Amino acid sequence: MKRTPMILAAMFLAGSGFTMNVAMAQQNGISRTDLLQEAISAEGRQAVQVRVDFEPGAVSIKHSHPGEEIAYVLEGTLEYTLEGRQPITLKAGEALFIPSGVVHLAKNVGDTKASELATYIVETGKTLVEPVK
Questions:
Q1: In terms of CB atoms within 10 Å, which of 18, 20, 78, 89 comes out highest?
Q2: DSSP line for 115-128
Q3: pLDDT digits (tens, 9 = 90+) for 83-124
Q4: Which domains occur in the chain, in start order?
Q5: Confidence of residue 26 (pLDDT cuts 50, 70, 90)
């Protein structure tokens, strides 16, 4: 009975052009909860919202997105490192704009769980998270 909603959600996401790199979704200490995916008035673009939870010390992989991201820290303290910039530390209630294609990573630098609300305006049908070596 519990599998049916998960299967339906997977079918919906697969059929909607929303793709996320599985490595990013299943990293140690990081969990992602997909909240929203909706076409917008800008042709070929969609809005996507994801909640990302980081255990203490958890670090994302280096990655980029096929569009803009606004990261809003819901709780805890996160350090963001954007390619070509000094790291920036944000606490709950603070936000950061990440331009399209900019390689970045996020790290929980606090002693407790940290969470962000990531809002993306991205190209429809593209992989949301593009890992970078």
A1: 78
A2: EEEEEEEEETTSBS
A3: 999 999 999 999 999 999 999 999 999 999 999 999 999 999
A4: 19-131 (2.60.120.10)
A5: low
Whole-number pLDDT of residue 28: 85
Task: Quickly count: other Cβ atoms within 10 Å of residue 128's Cβ.
Answer: 25
What is the H or E stretch that residue 14 is in?
A: helix 3-15
For the chain, the residue count is 133
Other CB atoms within a 10 A radius of the CB of residue 52 amount to 22
Kindly report the number of other CB atoms within 10 A of residue 8's CB atom: 10
Q: What is the separation, in whole angstroms, between the first and last Cα of the chain?
A: 40
Q: How many CB atoms lie within 10 A of CB 111?
A: 10
Q: What pLDDT score does 133 carry?
A: 87
